[in-house]
Design brief:
By secondary structure, this protein is α+β, with helices and mostly antiparallel strands. The chain has a single domain (7-179), classed as Hypothetical protein yfbM fold (3-Layer(aba) Sandwich), CATH 3.40.1760. The protein has nine helices and five strands, in the order αβααβααββααααβ. The protein has a five-stranded antiparallel sheet with strand order 2-1-5-4-3, with helices on both faces. Helix 4 (60-68) runs antiparallel to helix 5, helix 5 (80-86) crosses helix 6 and helix 6 (108-116) packs antiparallel against helix 9. It starts with 6 loop residues before the first helix and ends with a strand. 33% of the residues are buried.
Length: 180
C-alpha cells in the first residue's frame, strides 16, 4: 500500500498530477523499471495517446486538503478520497525518486463511491482557504486568490476524476498516477 511521502518530491517545483489509464500488460511492464526508465516510459505512453489520460495540473494538493483536511505530502492510507488524488501503490519505495503510483482496476469502485458521496456544496460552504496555507499546500502562495475560482477548479477536477475513474473501471484499465 501507500507508505511513501510526497515531501521530497514537493521540493521539485512545478509539479502537476497526471492520470493515465493502462491495461494489465502495460502495468506489468512498468513494475520493474527504475525511476528514470519509469518516468520516460510514462511520458512515452502519454505522448502515444494509446491510453486515455487527464491532468489536474497543480490543484492536486489543494484538492487533497479540501477533501481530507491535510496536504497530500503524507497520503492517508486506506482513505479513498486521498487515494483518488495520489493513488494506492507506489512503484518505487524511495523518497528520493519521482512520485508515481497506481490504482488497480479492482480498487476503482470504492474510490468512485467515495467521490460520488462528496457533498461539494457542504464542503465548499465550510471551506476556508487559510487551511491551505496552514497545511503548506503546494504550491505555496497561490491559494490567496479568489475562493470562488478555486472552488470551481476543485469541483471541475473532482468531476473529471470521477468520469475518468468510471471509464477506467468500465474498460478494465488500471490508473497510473504521476505527480512530477
Amino acid at each position: 500500500m501507500l507508505k511513501k511521502s510526497i515531501a521530497n518530491t514537493v521540493k521539485n517545483m512545478s509539479m502537476i498530477a497526471e492520470y493515465i489509464m493502462v491495461d494489465e500488460e502495460t502495468l506489468e511492464s512498468l513494475m520493474d523499471l527504475n525511476n528514470d526508465e519509469l518516468t520516460d516510459k510514462l511520458f512515452e505512453i502519454e505522448e502515444s495517446e494509446k491510453f486515455e489520460s487527464i491532468g489536474i495540473d497543480k490543484i492536486w494538493d489543494a484538492l487533497h486538503c479540501f477533501l481530507t483536511g491535510v496536504s497530500a505530502v503524507f497520503p492517508i492510507e486506506g482513505d479513498k478520497l486521498s487515494e483518488a488524488i495520489v493513488g494506492t501503490h507506489v512503484f518505487i519505495e524511495d523518497d528520493d525518486v519521482d512520485f508515481i503510483t497506481c490504482i488497480e482496476n479492482e480498487e476503482l469502485a470504492e474510490i468512485i463511491q467515495a467521490l460520488e458521496k462528496i457533498e461539494f456544496s457542504k464542503l465548499a460552504s465550510d471551506f476556508d482557504p487559510k487551511i491551505l496555507k496552514e497545511n503548506e499546500v503546494y504550491p505555496n502562495g497561490i491559494w490567496d486568490d479568489d475562493k470562488t475560482q478555486l472552488l470551481t477548479e476543485m469541483e471541475t477536477a473532482i468531476a473529471d476524476l470521477l468520469d475518468f475513474y468510471k471509464s477506467a473501471l468500465e474498460t478494465k484499465h488500471h490508473v497510473v498516477v504521476s505527480i512530477l
